[in-house]
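note to self: dont lose this again. the chain is below, predicted strucutre after it. 488 aa total, dont forget to put it in the shared folder this time
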Amino acid sequence: MASTSLPAAPLYSIPRVIFASSVGTMIEWYDFYLFGSLASVLAPKIYPAGNDTFALIAYLATFAIGFVVRPFGALFFGRLGDLVGRKYAFLVTLIIMGFSTFVIGLMPTFKQAGWFAPITLIVIRVLQGLALGGEYGGAAVYVGEHVPDARRGFYTSFIQITATLGLFVSLIVILVTQNTMSKAAFSDWGWRIPFLASIFLVLVSLYVRLKMKESPIFEQLKTTGMTSTQPLTDAFARWSNLKIVLISLFGATAGQGVVWYTGQFYALFYLQNILKVETKTANIVVVIALLLGIPFFTVVGALSDRIGRKKLIMAGCLLGVLCYIPIYKAMATASGNHIDSVQSKKNPVTGAIALTPMTRDATTGKLVPMKVATAPNLPMLVLLVWVQVLLVCLVYGPMAAFLIESFPAKIRYTSMSLPYHIGNGVFGGLVPLIGLSVIAGTGNIYAGLYYPMIVAGITFVVGTLLLKETHGNRIWVPAPEEKARMIA
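---
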């Protein structure tokens, strides 16, 4: 790995750098995941009434669009970040994300505007995806280029926390809003409040980021004329770098993506729509599990500084393959609902698929639609989701450090953003949609897990064979006087 030297710079605080970067990134994740956290509430409002399963799958498809376009945002903003600067790029992404999320809080429902509503939502979702495609890489690189080599896993793990923290905050805001009004009021208009409130968080984050200075490594590249004039060509048209991009995708980020979305989002959708745990209760289960799991991102990040990134990422993928079906069977038992099968019925007129979990009536022995779970074992459900969050920590905690250390500084933003957002945005983001669609097609409530298990399995094999350990790579060599300036 080519190394550089830090330029002379005024005293700067790593905690301040991490705070400024992570707060903005957390808010962008909050905006992005608020859309998914309210799926069961918004789906019937944005799409035609009469078939809840069709509405949910259509809504999840719209949700997935935001993930699919993330790689395009990675290319656009990654190039911008390598040409103009890390700070400038993620200032722009924050503005786009904040505006898009605020508009969702103002948009009409299907009943009010017909098909204009879902079309508008698709456009907004595309903007959100493009913005997030540029945000994560900028924040991770910005922090990674400020911190010491020996502690990069620990410090960048705070950026890794932001994705889970964004989901956590979105659920908390939803729960607080729900508890201040009736269920009918929240369904009617209260759902708009979390979207509208995000604009205040965005303005605070924008103020903080405007005061930030550029990354010292990028400043040196710019001062010495070493920045790339064609980041896309340098990153993807040269086999030496493209090979690392492809191995990083199939040997790390694809598996990490499906483990992340299975352990958090799919678990939430599964609780609400398959196990029929009441929406608010399911949110509480996931919130508690996330709260208990969040500290382990930094634990794993620090551990990766000692034993390496690769071992931990591979362990998380392998454990996902081995444990998901037992975990989800235990979740079904803990829900208190005894599911015999899932029936799907296609409407001959609309082509929509109705998905109905079925249970066997104790008196008649006939299969009947399952009712909302009345006595779920909440501690057990929290434990089972928490275990999945721990797997997320294993694969995600070291990921930013691994990607930063894999690519040269002049094309780092562009190079790392693409495999990250394909792995997470495409492979990971499609987990809820593919999972529920496969369940609808097969009637098997565990069939939705086959997709993340296969992807995680492929990543484990490719990563074990081809992925190089980056722990110990020095992305710069600070001069002795610069080491003294760094506040760890």
